[in-house]
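Re: that backbone. Tokens:
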């Protein structure tokens, strides 16, 4: 869409959940090698991109997020224009719905949406592979969100992506306890002897394992998360797990009625930090 001669674009930035996350080892650069299965879901932020001749500005109405280089969407735009090499700018309005520092990949998804959106505005100067390379320095999850898939098996630090089809068309209840957890802190406090045995994982969608090594760290400090898992299972979820480094816990439901009843129950305690979502694959692409 063009407004006053400038191209404008509205982008959705979906959250993700980790159905499986196993830490395989620590690398010399301080990062961890891992294996993870990620699923994009319908809970999403919204970004409005307005092209301009120069400069990058960011607005986050209703949020306390930084609007300068401290915001990942600003850095994503910087990387895009540096690679483009012919000038240009953008004004970004970020409308947050995904909780911050929640294990749902919101910041990474926002950055990926900026890369994809700017690529559209500027006539697709970069291939999907080139966008993924631009995404890598921005964060381990950003290449997954740049990739045009709804689910993937990821290795390396989470940036080596293999698209997958996940046979789950049900409902996802997400419960965020209302506090943030630092991903850096969780990984710093994880040791390879901390986690459980992936072979003991419970069955998830299509009998795929439902497992997260990082639960031992985060739930160890915040035992309430373990109680939320138990409550989700008692409410009818056929699987429940902490997503990423937490603290958001999700339950997978086949029954919409049970899922909605669970949302209502948790909302009495956690208010707007409880969400009902579905796999992004169930949503028609626009």
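Recovered sequence:
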């Amino acid at each position: 869409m063009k407004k006053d001669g400038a191209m404008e674009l509205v982008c959705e930035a979906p959250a993700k959940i980790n159905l499986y996350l196993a830490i395989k080892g620590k690398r010399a650069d301080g990062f961890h090698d891992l294996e993870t299965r990620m699923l994009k879901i319908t809970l999403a932020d919204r970004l409005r991109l307005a092209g301009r001749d120069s400069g990058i500005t960011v607005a986050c109405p209703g949020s306390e997020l930084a609007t300068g280089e401290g915001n990942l969407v600003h850095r994503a735009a910087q990387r895009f224009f540096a690679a483009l090499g012919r000038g240009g700018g953008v004004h970004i309005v970020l409308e947050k719905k995904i909780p911050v520092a929640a294990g749902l990949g919101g910041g990474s998804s926002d950055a990926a949406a900026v890369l994809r959106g700017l690529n559209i505005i500027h006539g697709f100067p970069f291939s999907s592979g080139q966008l993924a390379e631009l995404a890598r320095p921005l964060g381990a999850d950003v290449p997954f969100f740049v990739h045009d898939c709804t689910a993937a098996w990821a290795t390396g630090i989470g940036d080596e992506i293999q698209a997958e089809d996940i046979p789950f068309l049900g409902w996802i209840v997400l419960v965020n306890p209302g506090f943030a957890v630092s991903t850096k802190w969780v990984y710093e406090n994880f040791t390879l002897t901390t986690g459980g045995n992936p072979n003991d994982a419970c069955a998830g969608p299509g009998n795929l394992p439902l497992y997260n090594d990082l639960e031992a760290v985060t739930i160890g400090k915040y035992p309430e998360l373990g109680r939320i898992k138990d409550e989700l299972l008692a409410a009818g979820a056929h699987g429940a797990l902490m997503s990423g480094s937490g603290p958001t816990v999700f339950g997978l439901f086949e029954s919409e009625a049970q899922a909605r009843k669970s949302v209502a129950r948790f909302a009495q305690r956690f208010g707007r930090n409880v969400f009902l979502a579905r796999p992004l694959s169930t949503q028609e692409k626009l």
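The chain has two domains: 2-163, 171-282. The mean pLDDT is 89.
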